[in-house]
């Protein structure tokens, strides 16, 4: 198996090293793991592409490249340039430092890379490691993803739903914020929503007197609705959420017949 890996934390991020270990085991002795990842951190860029500016790409090692662009750019660079003659069988994004459950998935460059992969017609999975008080002080903060990532991906490849339609399914996987030995299992679930927990801004003034705004986050320990991704993560389970890039609110279409 030939696997492409990328992320949004940058090519030097520890989570990418974890993913490389997982992908190497998944690819097997005769497989290949290719890396095309952002040269610098690109957290929170979502599905952004560098449509108006070129991106420089540099080869760092055999089958390892850094691109000055977004995670989605890295997927485009890989499938249309770096790997155009040897396309990947699977594209993996992560392992992100922090969760991409609930509304975080909308902003996530990790998820954005998997989304672009699906739009390009490739099976893809985004993987993220939830942080919390029970794992952030561990020697290996990625313990649960490192220990359970391979089995999770093998299960998805064996039993997951993979489609070849216009907006193909990709997967958003989040590992719980607990030690690896305490992970309870997998749960297939929908995306949750943290109410009153959205992003905001914090004004500040620089020493030169100029005004700036810092984007602020919110506590990540608040549960979402029962049975949704972050809810299962906080209960010790790995969440697996099937997603599509189709943004249509299908549940509203019948009600809108009245406007025709």
TrEMBL record:
Cofactor list: a divalent metal cation
One Pfam assignment: SurE
The keyword Nucleotide-binding is assigned to this record: yes
Annotated compartments: Cytoplasm
GO CC list: cytoplasm
Cofactor note: Binds 1 divalent metal cation per subunit.
Keywords carried by this UniProt record: Cytoplasm, Hydrolase, Metal-binding, Nucleotide-binding
Predominant cellular place of this UniProt entry's protein: cytoplasm
Cited InterPro entries: SurE, SurE-like_Pase/nucleotidase, SurE-like_sf
Catalyzed reactions per annotation: a ribonucleoside 5'-phosphate + H2O = a ribonucleoside + phosphate
Source species, domain of life: Bacteria
GO molecular function terms listed in the Swiss-Prot or TrEMBL record: 3'-nucleotidase activity; 5'-nucleotidase activity; exopolyphosphatase activity; metal ion binding; nucleotide binding
Entry binding sites for a divalent metal cation: 8-9, 43, 96
Family membership: Belongs to the SurE nucleotidase family.
Summary of the function given for this chain in its UniProt record: Nucleotidase that shows phosphatase activity on nucleoside 5'-monophosphates.
Protein name stated in the entry: 5'-nucleotidase SurE
The organism of origin for this protein: Roseovarius atlanticus
Lineage, broadest ranks: Bacteria, Pseudomonadati, Pseudomonadota, Alphaproteobacteria, Rhodobacterales
């Amino acid at each position: 198996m030939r696997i492409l890996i990328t992320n949004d934390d940058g090519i030097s991020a520890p989570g990418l090293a974890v993913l490389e270990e997982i992908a190497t085991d998944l690819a097997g002795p005769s497989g290949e793991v290719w890396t095309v990842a952002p040269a610098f951190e690109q957290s929170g860029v979502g599905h952004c592409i560098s449509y108006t500016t070129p991106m420089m790409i540099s080869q760092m090692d055999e089958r390892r490249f850094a691109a000055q662009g977004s995670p989605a750019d890295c997927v485009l660079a890989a499938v249309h340039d770096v790997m155009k003659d040897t396309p990947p069988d699977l594209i993996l994004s992560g392992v992100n430092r922090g969760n991409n459950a609930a509304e975080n998935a909308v902003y996530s460059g990790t998820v954005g890379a998997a989304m672009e992969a699906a739009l390009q017609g490739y099976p893809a999975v985004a993987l993220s490691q939830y942080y919390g008080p029970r794992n952030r002080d561990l020697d290996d903060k990625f313990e649960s993803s490192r220990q359970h990532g391979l089995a999770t991906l093998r299960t998805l490849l064996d039993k997951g739903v993979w489609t070849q339609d216009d907006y193909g399914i990709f997967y958003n996987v989040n590992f719980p914020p607990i030690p690896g030995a305490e992970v309870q299992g997998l749960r297939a679930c929908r995306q949750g929503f943290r109410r009153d927990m959205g992003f905001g801004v914090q004004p500040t003034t620089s020493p030169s007197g100029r005004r700036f705004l810092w984007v602020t986050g919110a506590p990540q320990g608040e549960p979402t609705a029962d049975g949704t991704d972050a809810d299962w993560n906080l209960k010790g389970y790995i969440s697996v959420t099937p997603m599509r890039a189709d943004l249509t609110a299908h549940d509203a279409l019948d009600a809108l017949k009245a406007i025709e």
